[in-house]
Amino acid sequence: MQKLFKQHVRIHLYTLTANFYLYDKPHYRKGTYRDDLLDNLRNVAIPGTGFPLSLVASNRYLAAGCLLTCYPVIALMASVHKKLTCKDVSLVKEYSIRLLAPDDWFTYWRLNCVMVGLHSYLNTDPVTKNMPVDYQMENKWTFLETGLERGVPVSPYMKTPGIVVKHRNEEGGLGIYFYKNATDGGDWIIQERLQNSEWVQSLLPPNAPLSTFRVITCSKAACNMDQVARPSDVTALSCVFRAGREGAATDHDSILFDVDTETGLIRKGTTNQHWYKLGLTEPFKCAWRSSHSYEHHPDGNIEVTGSIVPDIQGMLSLVEKSHLQLCPRVPLAGWDVVFSNDPTLPICLLETNLSCNFFRGSFDKQLYLAFLSNLLVDLQNKRITGMVDKGI
20 to 30 A from 366, CA-CA: which of 102, 159, 252, 301? Predict the structure, then answer.
C-alpha cells in the first residue's frame, strides 16, 4: 500500500508541474492548453469557495502562487473537515493524501487531462506540426463519420442539408432559425432524439433525459506509437450509470451510480454537483463532500442499486473495440454508451471524450497508476529528446 501511495505521489507531483510546462503549448482541441483550462474550469469551483477555477488558471504566475499557498491550506481544511466528520480518521494521514496523492474525482479528471495534453503535444510530428490523427475523434462530427465508416455503432444522424425551426406563434420574420447540417459543411449535427430503452427508463423518473453509461478505457498502444495496436492493448477501467434528473435536458445533471465491471451490478450512487456551485453565497450553503449514499433515484424514490446491467461484458467489449478502431494511440478515452429503445440500434455510442472524467466510478487503482507511470516514462524520454534536439 505504501508503494502504491508513493507511486501516486510521484505521478501527482509530476503532472502538477506539467501544467506549467504545457500552459502555452498547442492543445489538440483548443489553441493552447491554457485556452482549454479556461474553457473547462469556468463552471467548476472547489466546494465551499464559489470562485470558478478558471480565474486561477487565467495567469500562470497566479496559478503558481495559489498552488504554493492556497492549495496546502485547502488540503488542510479538507483534512480537518474529514477528521471532524469521521473520528477514526488520522489527521496526518488524511492531510498527506489530500496534499500529495488526492483521490477525489476532480484530481483524477485533471490528471487525465494533463496526460492526454502531454501525449498529444510530445507526439506532434516535427515536420508537419500535426498532432496524432487519433485525437481528431474529440470532434463530434469526425467521430460520427469515422465511426460509421469503420463499423462502430454510433448515434445516427440525418443527411438533409439543413433544417428550419419555427416558433409556432411568431410572425414578421421572428422566431425562425436555420441550421446547416455538418453533412453539408455546416456547424450542426442534426439528429433525431434518442430515447432510453425500457430497462433504463425503469430506473428513471418520468421526463428524465437520455441517460448514458460512461465507460473509461486505456490503451497501451499510446506508449508504442510506431507499433500496430492489438486488442490486448485496450482495457476498460470503469463504468458509471448517469441517471438523469427529472426535467433535466441532459444527464450532466444526474446521480452517478457506480457499476461493477465484472458483474454489471449497479452499486450505490453519488453526485459531484457540489463542485459546480458558483457565487459568493455558496460557501455558506454548499456541501463540502458527498458520499456514495444513494440507493434510489431521488426523483420518485426508484430503486437503482442492486439492478444488473444487461450484458455488461458485451458493452465493455464494444467500447474496447471502438477505442482500438478509432483512436488506439490516445492513452485514455471516455465513452458515452446509450441503451436505446430503437430495435435496430439497441446500443450505440454518442461520443468519446479524450480528456475524460471517471464521474466518481471505481477502478483498479494499481492498474491505472501503473499505466500512467509507464506512459510518463515514455513521455519524459520524448521531452528530454526534444530538448536535446533543440540544443536546450
Answer: 252
